[in-house]
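Here comes an entry:

___
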Amino acid sequence: MDNKKHYTVTMADLFFKQGYYDEAKEIYLYLQKEKLDNLKIKHISSKIEEISNILNKENTKSLDKQDKGSNISSLLEKWFSLKLKLNKIEHMRNLKKHINDNAVT
């Protein structure tokens, strides 16, 4: 966000309530450097910590999903490889049967 002269605690709180955590954190961090009264500074510090916790949880969930996705991908790859081997075995059995059937006649 470019226009820092409009940064207010209220604006940051609104972003926070709407789930725009990165924007809210940016404003809170900016305001933390400003000369504000102690009550606002405590509020800002607690919100920054809360946002950090939320973002850490979201990152953890995202990594968990990626791990599950890569696990599923790995399982599908193994299944596909086994399916190809099974198809080759079945083809070889059919070929062997065909050869045996022709050898008898």
The radius of gyration is 31 Å.
